[in-house]
Design brief:
It is a single chain. With 165 residues, this protein is an alpha+beta fold. It is 32% helix and 28% strand. A five-stranded antiparallel sheet has the order 2-3-1-4-5. Helix 3 packs antiparallel against helix 5. The longest helix has 19 residues.
């Protein structure tokens, strides 16, 4: 199968393989939800510093949560061809995990609309993880951001998706 033939199966590519924004005007608005997650792994000392609230830049987890929510609202400005969405809810939860050590970041985005919110949930997780890194990078530059993925999506024509554990 040629590259052009494969490209025809992707909704954001035209007949010749050029990128374009998908027209969703004929789609009926439905309730849609997406959940994404990721992890920030760090040394035990850095983990303890964040948990104790002693980072020089301030409240690491609160700032990361806010950054994730703000990023979800601006996804269409960051990712080409994403539709601007009137999000009805965005949550970002950050849980400490002593086994990593580090933090698991989980974001949920909701909308009643004509297109899904997977990119908004993934963007929220990505930016929240990057914010954690940024706020303590002076202490540890070797932190790792891993496992960013879509966990679940509901609504729309393609129905329900849940990632395998």
């Amino acid at each position: 199968m040629s590259a052009v033939a494969r490209a025809r199966k992707l909704t954001h590519l035209g007949k010749s393989g050029e990128a374009h924004m998908v027209d969703v005007s004929a789609k009926a608005p439905t309730a849609r939800v997406a959940v994404a997650e990721g992890r920030v792994l760090m040394s035990q000392a850095t983990f303890d510093l964040v948990l104790a609230g002693n980072a020089k830049k301030g409240d690491v987890l609160g700032t990361a949560r806010l950054a994730g929510i703000m990023a979800a609202k601006r996804t269409h400005e960051l990712i080409p061809l994403c539709h601007p969405l009137a999000l009805t809810q965005v949550t970002v939860d950050i849980e400490p995990d002593c086994k990593l050590p580090g933090f698991t970041v989980r974001a949920s985005a909701s909308v009643t609309g004509q297109t899904g919110v997977e990119m908004e949930a993934l963007t929220a997780v990505s930016v929240a993880c990057l914010t954690i890194y940024d706020m303590v990078k002076a202490v540890e530059r070797g932190m790792r951001i891993e496992g960013i993925r879509l966990v679940e999506k509901r609504g729309g024509k393609s129905g329900h998706y849940r990632a395998k554990e």
